[in-house]
Amino acid sequence: QKEVEQNSGPLSVPEGAIASLNCTYSDRGSQSFFWYRQYSGKSPELIMSIYSNGDKEDGRFTAQLNKASQYVSLLIRDSQPSDSATYLCAVNTEFNAGGTSYGKLTFGQGTILTVHP
Amino acid sequence: ETGVTQTPRHLVMGMTNKKSLKCEQHLGHNAMYWYKQSAKKPLELMFVYSLEERVENNSVPSRFSPECPNSSHLFLHLHTLQPEDSALYLCASSQDFRQDGDTQYFGPGTRLTVL
What we know:
The structure holds two protein chains of two kinds.
Chain A: E1 4-6, E2 11-14, E3 19-25, E4 33-38, E5 45-50, E6 54-58, E7 61-66, E8 71-76, E9 85-97, E10 100-107, E11 111-116
Parallel strand pairs in A: 2-11
Antiparallel strand pairs in A: 1-3, 3-8, 4-5, 4-9, 6-7, 7-8, 9-10, 9-11
Chain B: E1 4-7, E2 10-13, E3 18-25, E4 31-37, E5 44-50, E6 53-55, E7 64-70, E8 73-79, E9 87-94, E10 105-106, E11 110-114
Parallel strand pairs in B: 2-11
Antiparallel strand pairs in B: 1-3, 3-8, 4-5, 4-9, 5-6, 7-8, 9-10, 9-11
């Protein structure tokens, strides 16, 4: 069973602080990693993707990937109350069907982030 | 929400009913997916279609039956469901799931309640 584990929440940070969300995965062959944000009652929304080791920055968001440690994280700088949501880590893992290998997304259980004023 | 749309947004059904969920993607993608999201559990992949060809997922009960008439439309037919099937059902699409880095985009979901 290929698994994706996220740090247990909920995580609460004050407005303006850095929120750090962590994720580990078991499939060493995974090459694609995604962070989705899901507001309560809504569907997941892609916020970041990362494929290479190191950091990738997009505005206030930074994704970090370390394939050797099988670890991916998301940092949110200058956190705002509007960032309050569940953050889902998703990892592209391999599965087999009909004798052919495909990639599929395996999701972590999510981390609930609350940014309080 | 013009990328991936789903109808209905909410559905309440009895255990003996038959209903269908509909998904439509306007992104020109080749792959479509059904996911189930239950409270306190990770998103569970149910079915994958690529160019209208179904990729089996053997862990899904037969009371869920998918249909993909073309690359833009995906249905999930439901019959004799159980209360534990109550969940948010999400449709997603992507360009080509065989390619590394392929990104999935989600519809708004159907909130299903089975009485």
